[in-house]
Design goal:
Blueprint lengths: L5 E4 L8 H7 L9 H19 L6 E7 L13 E10 L5 E3 L5 E5 L4 E5 L14 E7 L6 H16 L11 H6 L6
Length: 181
Amino acid sequence: MWYPATVTVAATAEPVSLVEAKRHVHAEDFVDDDAELALLIAAARDRVEKYCNTRFATQTVVVKCDCFGDMARLSEAPVQSVSSITYVDTDGVTQTLATSVYELRSDGLESSIVLKYGQSWPSIQTNSRITLTAVVGTADVPAAVKHAMLLSLADGYEMRENAAASAWTAIDVLLSNFRRG
């Protein structure tokens, strides 16, 4: 079982630029709303990432699981690289799993960590957690996902109050093919 991830290094670049956001909401000619738009860009990305269960900006996360069998399907995707995998051995000592034991496999949507030929997972202390630290996210955000982010931030820019959402929106339609279970 995977536990919720903690972002340890936040995204430094957004999939939607301030220029793109300003163009989308017709605010190219002034800077008064730049801070608000920057906030809405980050909020739109966060909304889309949670909806799709996929990271669309490069960031570093720490996530824990119960056993090495959980590595067959990582809870975070796409994974660019693994920084470390740590575990508590049967003697109660925290160990870092050698990179010679495993390899990362990722198809851009799903990611897994598998054993290299001839290797085996180490034994872990009962009731301990395995900790995966990884760089996740993608630089190639699909056009439909980017458009959903623009629609989301435009909604926040135009409707500065809390409003009821309809049951099925254009954002849902755009993102439906990018959701991970």
